[in-house]
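FORM 12-B: Structure-to-Sequence Request
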């Protein structure tokens, strides 16, 4: 049994203008999506990779977010070479079908590579350390000319699901016209790899301490969606990436309730 508690987040007035105060009689069906909290160790703590989305985006325009996106139907391709927890285990963690679990993990790997250049793949025991040779494949993945399964097969690579951890499952509130059932993963930046901002979906990208990202949002220098804010706040409790990766979390499906009040939104979480 869930008990709702009220938490408030500030969003720009321009965002509120398009947000209905009440959900429609028939809310849009959420689209499955995968998002990755990419972490690295720095002196005195951890940093997370964040991107500020361009204002032309149809969803979360101008927001500061983690890399991620919608599931492509080809992400469920069972031919993907796979190492680590199998789709059946991910299905248990996320409470979904095995086919969807496979697609979610593949989408997490694909979106992370497309949006940050970080590739969670390699051999059964080693991870890619230099992704520069896959630049053309990255572009082809973005344009959907190439599927993740075909890319990995052609490059002789294996998807490394052991580099990911389940973290959260948030569903976009019913008021939003574009809704997502987003599963959030945790991953450490692989040794030797560099995260970049070479994506047309973001106007800027970079590493930031979770507490600093929250401070920027409070000061109005950036805008965070409630799930992003909530998870950044969770990360402030940890001092190393290893500590985060060791966490065993339950992953309930969370659908926030929104109450618009002037310049702010009250977000009620179960």
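FORM 12-B RESPONSE
SEQUENCE OUT:
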């Amino acid at each position: 049994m869930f008990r709702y508690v009220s938490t408030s987040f500030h969003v720009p007035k321009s965002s509120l203008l398009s947000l209905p105060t009440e959900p429609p009689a028939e809310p849009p069906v959420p689209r499955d999506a995968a998002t990755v909290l990419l972490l690295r160790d720095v002196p005195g703590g951890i940093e997370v990779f964040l991107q500020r989305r361009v204002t032309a985006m149809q969803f979360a325009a101008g927001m500061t977010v983690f890399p991620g996106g919608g599931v492509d139907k080809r992400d469920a391709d069972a031919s993907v070479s796979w190492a680590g927890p199998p789709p059946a285990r991910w299905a248990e963690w996320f409470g979904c079908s095995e086919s969807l679990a496979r697609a979610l993990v593949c989408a997490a790997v694909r979106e992370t590579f497309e949006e940050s250049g970080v590739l969670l793949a390699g051999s059964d025991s080693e991870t890619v350390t230099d992704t520069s040779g896959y630049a053309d494949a990255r572009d082809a993945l973005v344009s959907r000319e190439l599927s993740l399964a075909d890319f990995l097969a052609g490059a002789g690579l294996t998807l490394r699901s052991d580099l990911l951890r389940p973290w959260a499952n948030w569903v976009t509130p019913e008021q939003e016209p574009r809704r997502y059932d987003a599963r959030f993963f945790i991953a450490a930046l692989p040794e030797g790899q560099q995260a970049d901002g070479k994506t047309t979906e973001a106007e800027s990208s970079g590493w930031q301490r979770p507490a600093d990202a929250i401070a920027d949002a409070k000061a109005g220098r950036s805008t965070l969606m409630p799930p992003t804010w909530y998870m950044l706040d969770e990360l402030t409790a940890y001092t190393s990436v290893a500590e985060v990766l060791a966490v065993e979390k339950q992953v309930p499906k969370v659908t926030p309730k929104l109450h618009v009040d002037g310049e702010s939104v009250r977000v009620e979480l179960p």
